[in-house]
Fold this sequence. Notes:
By secondary structure, this protein is mainly β. The protein has a domain at 15-48 and 80-116: SET domain (Beta-clip-like), CATH 2.170.270. It has one helix at 120-123, and strands at 23-27, 33-37, 46-49, 54-55, 62-67, 72-77, 86-87, 93-96, 99-102, 111-114. The strands form 3 sheets. A 4-stranded mixed sheet has the order 1-2-10-7, with no helix packed on it. The chain has a 3-stranded antiparallel sheet with strand order 3-9-8, with no helix packed on it.
Amino acid sequence: xxxxxxxxxxxxxxxxxxxxxxxxxxxxxxxxxxxxxxxxxxxxxxxxxxxxxxxxxxxxxxxxxxxxxxxxxxxxxxxxxxxxxxxxxxxxxxxxxxxxxxxxxxxxxxxxxxxxxxxxxxxxx
Length: 125
């Protein structure tokens, strides 16, 4: 009996990342894969919600959100298409909690980015 080869699906072809009617995943000039607009998105418009299990450890796809009520940070280990949003110093979107909104008009086909707000000095240490 022959072995079946497991084939890895590209994020841009994975049905798990195709539910959001406003965005899609494709190859990015910024880094690996990115999040792109399926259609024009108006300034202030809701783009999507970052979904996944909670996390206490940092990771490549962990979004850290400030909880106003508990006055502490909590992590979300992204499992949907929103995890592919890349960093930009001049982003076109931002997260308000776990929800992303457009900071300005985003044209169909544009990559959607947000500011990771990391400490660049720490990266150089």
